[in-house]
Write a structure and sequence with these properties.
Helix content: 40-55%
Number of strands: 8
Shape: elongated
Order of helices and strands: EEEHHHHHHHHHHHHEEEHHEEHHHH
CATH class of the largest domain: Mainly Alpha
CATH architecture of the largest domain: Orthogonal Bundle
Number of domains: 3
Radius of gyration: 28 Å
CATH superfamily of the largest domain: Intergrase catalytic core
Largest sheet: 3 strands, antiparallel
Structural class: alpha+beta
Strand order of the largest sheet: 1-2-3
Strand content: 5-15%
CATH topology of the largest domain: hpI Integrase, Chain A
Amino acid sequence: MSATFELRTANKSGYATVFVRIQSSRLGVNIRQSTHLKVPVRVWQLPADSVARRHYADSAEGYNVFSKLEKIRREINIRIAAGIPISPDEVRLIVASTVFETDISLLNRSKSIGTKHILLNEYIEQYITGMENGTRLSVHGKRYAKGSVDAARQTMKKFREYQESKQMTLGFQDIDMRFYKEFITYLQSCNYSINSIGKCINGIKNLLRAAESDGYNGFTYYRDHRFKAYSVNTDSIYLTREELDRFMSVNLDKYRKCYEYARDIFYVGVCTAQRVSDYSNISSRNMRQINVNDKEKDSKKFTTIEIIQKKTGNKVSIPVSTSLEKVLQKYDWKLPHISEPRLNKYIKVVGRLAGIDSPVEIVRTNGGTERRETLRKHELICTHTARRTGATLMYLSGMDIYDIMKITGHTSPSILKKYIKANDLDVAIKIKNKYDYFD
């Protein structure tokens, strides 16, 4: 039996990947392999002699796909007709040499250096799928959060677009310092910020590290100390205690309820110093009553919020203050739901109404070039500002940094320091109030 091609999708529109199927009872072969070529589903389902299918086949895109499929079919059928056994690895090599125009000697090099063979783009699909379905776990042994999966998918999308711009397909052997410099130049030409570029580089390094651990990647150029991700602080603000008080006391009677909901959700984020994915979903199931026995006084109870952080899987316990308890009771211990984009929009309005309008100079990057501009502080308030504000106010209150880490879930002081946004004057006042150095 000759090689055939098929789509494995339930979709009736859009694009789908073409798979090659090789079956031969005489040779004991039953192989299905992705060709990595994609075609419009509607076109594929048309009769071969239809006008629309012939029109697509004559286009530049269609000719590229169908000519490569025919070459794959011919290479495989020659082997089958000659009675030569064919393995899945050999099918992958035929696909690679045809679709990606890759030198097979480079693909075979992975075997000579003791690694298993897989194409880089094929591994990327496997890597993302594993993150999504839970077969690939984080360094903490937990399933990846949706945000982490989305970030990895975006990085790989940019990597694919880069390959398309170069009209070439890269393998593990191509990810070296030359690629690093050219990839950064490409992202800069697309007007990505320094931080976005840094996230892409980190995403690719994580992928290559995983491939090496899985035994697929024997090329370790990415370990070069120059192959690094850069970042800059752009909107590192927090609300002072006085600003937070104004934020919470602003009159919102003339505004829709969603603004009050957003303000209260943000305040819960400040009091808990959690990520928005954790603090926006707090409900009664997170509450726990703790009994404290005091030898000199009667035993007393207090409430804690217990959270398993989505990003890290860390368990944290946060004491519930009187003001936080009042907000939670207002909603019967179940916060209303507002999507993050709307939450960001509403809290900026509340910040403006509260007069949080001091000028803040920030750094933005465009195409890798830094540009400074001044905005009003309320324009920079976002969901993550709550976490920064909570951590910073805890620090300025005199709380031990290791106790703060127990609440925020950070694993080292150096990482927590990125969230503590106190300036030199704030720290000086903290030292004066706590240690009385000057009296």
